[in-house]
Design a protein that fits this description.
- The chain is an alpha+beta fold.
- Helices cover 18% and strands 44% of the residues.
- The protein contains 2 helices and 12 strands.
- The structure holds fe (ii) ion (FE2).
C-alpha cells in the first residue's frame, strides 16, 4: 500500500471516530475526544510527508490541501503547509466547530470572547505543536501566530468545509472593528483527496 492509500485509510478511521464522538452533540468534552483523535492522526507523521504537502513558493505564506470532506461538506479536513510567519487576526469560522493539531512546527493560538459585535477580548493562549491541539465550539474565535523558524504542517478539522462556512467575522483589534469575509469557494484550496 502506498502512503496516500495508507493516509486515506487512517483519515477515514479518524473521521469515523470523530463522527462517533460528536454524535450526541458538540460540547467541550466531546470536542476534547476529537482533539485526541486528531493528535493521534498527527502522530503518524510518516503519513504526511512534506513531499506530498510542500510549502508554498513565491509570495504566499501557506498552502491549504483538502484531504477529506463528508458528503454534505461536513467533517472537512485540511492540511495547512505554511512558512514561518503565518499569522491571522482574530476570526470565527462561520458557525463551525474547529480542531487544529500539529504534525510539524509550532504556532500560538489566541482564544477570544466577543465583547461587542465589533470587539473581542483575549481569554486564553495555547501553543499548538506536536502533541498538543486546540479546539473551538461553533462560536469560537481565535488568532494564529506561527512561532520559530520551522515550517508548519498542521491538520485543521472543521464541522463545515470552508465553502460551507459562509460568512466569517474577522476582528481588527487596533481599529476596534469587525469585518465580514465570505468564504465561498476559495480558489487557493488544493484538492489532495
Ligand atoms: Fe481559524
Amino acid at each position: 500500500m502506498n502512503i496516500k492509500t495508507r493516509r486515506e485509510a487512517a483519515i477515514q478511521a479518524s473521521i469515523r471516530n470523530a463522527r462517533d464522538f460528536l454524535s450526541e452533540g458538540t460540547t467541550i468534552d466531546s470536542l476534547n475526544l476529537v482533539k485526541g483523535e486528531l493528535m493521534a492522526l498527527c502522530a503518524q507523521s510518516h503519513l504526511f510527508p512534506r513531499s506530498d504537502f510542500p510549502v508554498p513558493d513565491g509570495d504566499r505564506v501557506e498552502r491549504c490541501f483538502l484531504v477529506h470532506e463528508g458528503d454534505h461538506g461536513d467533517f472537512a479536513l485540511y492540511v495547512n503547509s505554511a512558512l514561518p510567519g503565518q499569522a491571522y487576526r482574530p476570526h470565527n469560522h462561520g458557525g463551525s466547530w474547529a480542531v487544529i493539531a500539529a504534525v510539524e512546527g509550532e504556532e500560538t493560538h489566541g482564544l477570544y470572547q466577543e465583547v461587542t459585535p465589533d470587539t473581542v477580548k483575549l481569554v486564553n493562549q495555547i501553543t499548538v505543536k506536536p502533541g498538543t491541539a486546540v479546539s473551538m465550539l461553533e462560536e469560537g474565535i481565535h488568532s494564529i501566530h506561527a512561532e520559530g523558524d520551522q515550517p508548519l504542517l498542521h491538520l485543521h478539522l472543521y464541522g463545515k468545509s470552508f465553502a460551507r462556512q459562509g460568512e466569517r467575522t474577522e476582528y481588527d483589534l487596533e481599529l476596534g472593528i469587525a469585518e465580514h469575509l465570505v468564504m465561498g469557494e476559495l480558489d487557493y484550496i488544493e484538492d489532495a483527496r
